[in-house]
Specification:
Layout: H1 2-13, H2 18-46, E1 60-64, H3 75-85, E2 90-96, H4 114-124, E3 129-137, H5 151-167, E4 171-177, H6 184-200, E5 204-208, H7 217-225, H8 233-240, E6 245-248, H9 258-275, E7 281-287, E8 292-293, E9 296-297, H10 303-317, E10 324-329, H11 336-346
Parallel strand pairs: 1-2, 1-10, 2-3, 3-4, 4-5, 5-6, 6-7, 7-10
Antiparallel strand pairs: 8-9
Helix pairs in contact: 2-9, 3-4, 5-6, 9-10, 10-11
C-alpha cells in the first residue's frame, strides 16, 4: 500500500498531469461545495428560538401495527394504550388493516378483530378516531405490485375502502409506495375515493412523500438512481387539495447528524405548510423506530429533533395555523424516550399526560 501511495504522489506531481489535476479539482469542488453548503444551511435552519404557541393543537395521529386487528391485542392492551395517550394531542389512529392485494382487493380475513378494536377505542378513548390504514407496493420501480394506471385496479381500491368503512372505521388512510411525483393516476384515485368518503362523511387521509428540498430534485434522482424519492411541491399541493389529512413521512432521510435532520424537518414543514390548504390537516411524521440502515440512522433521526424541526418550521411559516399536528411512526417500535420527546417537546392538551 505504501508503494502504491508513492506512485500516486509521483503521478500527481508529474507536470503532464496538470490538466487532469485541474479537472479533478473542479469535480471535487462541484461535488463537495453543494454538500457542505447544504449541510450548513440545514444546521442554520435547526437553530433559533421555539415560539410560544407552536405546540399540539389536539390533531395528532399515530400509525398502529396489524396486531390491533388480527387478534393479538387484548382488552389489557387497550387499557394500557388509553393510559399512554391520555392528555396528549392524539386524535387519530391509523391502524394497519391491509395490505391490499396487487389487484386492489382486500381479503376480509385480514382484519378479524377490527370491530372489537373500534368499539373498544370509542368506549375507552372518547373522541379518538380509528382509521383503516391500507397500502400496497406499487409497480413503479419493479414489475410486481399494484398498477394504478389500470382503471380496474383503481376501482377495486375504492371498493376495498367501501368494504372497510362498512365495518365501522371512522376513516380510511392510504400509504402507497413508491409513488412518483406527478402521478395522475394517483390523483384520479384520490378523486374517486373522495366521492366515497364525502358520501360517508368520514375523513380521507394519506401518507405523503417528502417535498423536493432543492428544485426538481425528484427528477434528478429519478434519472440517476431510478428512484425519485421526493415529490415536487406542486404535486404535494395537488394531493393535499384532494384529502382531509396529509401526513408527511419526514424520516428515512439518510442524514447522519441530528441537527441536520432537525433542520431538514423544519424545511419540510415550511414547504408543506406553504401549499397545504387551510382546511386540510397537515401532519409531520415523527420517527418512533430505531433501525440502522443506509436510509435511516436512529442516532440522527430522533423524535426530539423532528419535534423541534416541526415547531421551528411552523413558527417561521404559519405560527397560527390550526390544522397542524404530528404523526408518530410506529407504535410497536416506540421507546419511552420517544414518548417523552413527544410529550415534553410537543406538549399536551390536558394538564397532565
Amino acid at each position: 500500500m505504501r508503494g502504491f501511495g508513492r506512485t500516486l504522489i509521483r503521478a500527481w506531481r508529474d507536470p503532464r498531469a496538470r490538466w487532469p489535476k485541474r479537472v479533478a479539482l473542479v469535480l471535487a469542488v462541484l461535488l463537495v461545495v453543494p454538500v457542505v453548503t447544504g449541510a450548513a444551511a440545514l444546521r442554520l435552519t435547526y437553530a433559533g428560538e421555539l415560539l410560544d404557541g407552536t405546540q399540539t393543537r389536539g390533531r395528532d395521529a399515530i400509525w398502529l401495527g396489524h396486531a390491533w386487528v388480527d387478534g393479538r391485542k387484548k382488552d389489557a392492551d387497550i387499557d394500557a394504550f388509553a393510559r399512554r395517550i391520555k392528555g396528549t394531542g392524539i386524535r387519530d389512529l391509523y391502524v394497519h388493516t391491509g395490505p391490499l392485494e396487487h389487484n386492489g382487493t382486500l381479503p376480509a380475513d385480514r382484519y378479524p378483530r377490527a370491530r372489537w378494536l373500534i368499539d373498544a377505542v370509542h368506549r375507552e378513548m372518547p373522541g379518538v378516531r380509528v382509521h383503516a390504514w391500507l397500502g400496497d407496493k406499487l409497480a413503479t420501480e419493479s414489475p410486481d405490485g399494484l398498477r394504478l394506471e389500470r382503471a380496474a385496479s383503481r376501482a377495486a381500491v375504492v371498493r376495498s375502502a367501501e368494504q372497510i368503512l362498512d365495518v365501522g372505521f371512522d376513516g380510511v388512510h392510504f400509504d402507497l409506495e413508491p409513488l412518483h411525483s406527478d402521478d395522475r393516476d394517483y390523483l384520479s384515485l384520490l378523486d374517486d375515493l373522495r366521492v366515497l368518503t364525502r358520501a360517508r362523511d368520514v375523513p380521507l387521509s394519506v401518507a405523503a412523500h417528502q417535498i423536493d428540498p432543492l428544485p426538481a430534485l425528484h427528477s434528478a434522482a429519478g434519472a440517476l438512481a431510478g428512484h425519485p424519492k421526493w415529490w415536487s411541491q406542486a404535486f404535494f399541493a395537488e394531493v393535499a387539495r384532494r384529502v382531509d389529512q396529509i401526513a408527511v413521512m419526514s424520516y428515512d432521510t439518510a442524514l447522519p447528524v441530528e441537527s441536520l435532520y432537525g433542520g431538514y424537518v423544519a424545511q419540510q414543514t415550511s414547504l408543506a405548510i406553504e401549499v397545504t390548504p387551510e382546511d386540510t390537516d397537515l401532519l409531520m411524521g415523527l420517527p418512533f423506530y430505531h433501525t440502522e440502515e443506509l436510509g435511516h440512522h436512529a442516532h440522527a433521526e430522533t423524535a426530539a429533533a423532528a419535534v423541534r424541526g416541526a415547531r421551528l418550521g411552523l413558527g417561521r411559516t404559519d405560527r397560527d395555523r390550526e390544522r397542524f399536528g404530528v404523526a408518530l411512526y410506529v407504535d410497536f417500535a416506540a421507546t419511552e424516550a420517544d414518548w417523552t420527546a413527544y410529550r415534553e417537546g410537543w406538549g399536551c392538551v390536558a394538564a397532565k399526560c
